[in-house]
Design the sequence.
């Protein structure tokens, strides 16, 4: 259970409420300034399967795939610059 006294402070600090339980308690929040940051009071992996992943699990995997693509692109660009620089010498 989330202590409701802390919720306004979390929201003021930039966290965004992402899920509420049937009783209205905050059950998950996220930090929109990061590629992927979710905190939950439940375990999404227990309701996830290979054929039907939980949306949080799928979001995490998509964020990882996006980060890998960005890292690969940046690495390729750095290698290209290094080669171009050494050719000028």
Sequence:
């Amino acid at each position: 259970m989330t202590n409701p006294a802390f919720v306004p402070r979390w929201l003021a600090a930039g966290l965004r409420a992402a899920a509420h339980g049937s009783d209205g308690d905050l059950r998950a929040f996220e930090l929109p300034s990061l590629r992927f940051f979710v905190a939950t009071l439940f375990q999404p992996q227990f309701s996830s399967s290979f054929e039907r992943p939980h949306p949080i699990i799928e979001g995490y995997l998509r964020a990882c795939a996006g980060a890998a693509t960005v890292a690969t692109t940046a690495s390729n660009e750095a290698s290209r610059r290094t080669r171009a620089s050494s050719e000028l010498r």
The mean pLDDT is 78. Strands lie at 16-20, 26-30, 38-40.
